[in-house]
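Notebook entry, structure prediction.
Reason for the run: the old model in the group folder had no record of what sequence produced it. Starting over properly, with the input documented here first.
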Amino acid sequence: MVFRLVLGCGTVGRQVVEQLAERDGSGRLLVVTDDESVVGALRDESVPARHGDPTDSDVLGNVERPDAIFVGGDRTDRNRATLEAARDRFSEASIVAHVGGNPTAADRTSFEELADHVVDPNDALVDGVLDEIACPSAETAIELRSHLEAIDDPLAVVMHDNPDPDAIASAVALVDIAKSLGLEAEACYFGEISHQENRAMINLLSLDLRNLSSEDSLERFGAFALVDHSRPGVNDQLPEDLVVDVVIDHHPPRGPVSAGFVDLREHAGATSTVMTEYVDRFDLAFDPTTATALLYGIRVDTNDFTREVSPADFRAASILWPHVDTTVLERVEQPTIEGDTLETIARAIKNRTQDGPIVVASAGRITNRDALPQAADQLLAMDGVDTTLVFGFKDEMAFLSARSRAGDVDLGETLRDAFDRIGSAGGHADMAGAQLEIGILGDVDDADEMESIVSVVEEVITNRFFEAIETRPGVPVGAYTQTSEWLFTRAGDPDGGESA
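New structure, fully documented this time:
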């Protein structure tokens, strides 16, 4: 009987596992992945799964010799390390390896040398598979319709905090779908919209959005939907135990997602792409306002179709284009820039620290957090630089924005590794962000003491990022852990206080 071993279980890996599990007489199957939520889900489906690091030779040492191996994670660097460990441990096994989403030329060479067959997203066959994965089927659209028709209104369609164009457009589109079914719905968000392009988008398109505060009662809503994020209480100010009815997102979740209807399309470049498909599947006439917002959302999240783009994104754009108000779109993309934004960018450029191709910069005190990604983009344009992190302080928070064009860097994972213990972080491989609560800043009145503390915090952030971005195994977090955990605390008294 053939024994098949799956190491790592990302989006492509999960599809392969499901197909293997459904085939009669396919032999024995075992999945080894370091994602506990995936292990639990597979076990619930009666698929043998084991929690462990597939790059760890000791973990592989506890697995009997397989006949065939599939390396099925999403990250190129992890898949390469897994492939190397698997080939070393099981020299005679037949190995098929998924190259992942950001392979360099060196990665491709290594995969070709070690694997018997390489699954490359650039292959026509895989493009076709990803195209189908990223596109809602007719059955999924019917399921969404049935679920919306069954819930109580009004429906709150909640974006993540300080929403970007993709989140805004996706919420507006879901509100349109709900209203077409006779369901009262509102597009809602917490935080603020301060980026000049985002404000221009809302104003020029006259989008109807409700800005919620943490003091607002949610009892007026009969149901809740999340767009462009997937878990209540994570990057929004909803209660963590809130019952969610609908989740539509394109980001990989960092934990279990619970809702009556869930559609996570990780291979779509934007949630706006998924919502375009739904509007089209529902056979609704595209309102020019919604179509313009959706196209802008896709263009921003894919960096004008150059970042993590899929065939579905191009197809969605072709569907939207005949309905887009191009005059308004041009005005949205060319807003005026405020003086404060230019000053923030200037401070970041002046205060930069460079280590090889990596630049970290503090913009100090800021009034507009949306100036940070613009500063990160400007620094990325420097000669010889492929990764940037810019951060600034507002009230008792530190806001971070990172950019990269390095094929071997996953910024989302890097920021989570560096800052998840002391804040919230996430994003894409080449674009990510984080926010950290620094409660101690609210207790300091003396200007010199404040400057000294900010200087220490800047050093902590800089060093944690440089340490996290190192790819060498066994590199310790460093001597800054204790200091950073003290700094990033909502201090109720000078001797400690409650953890943030």
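Summary: The first strand starts at residue 3 and ends at 7.
The old model has been moved to the deprecated folder.
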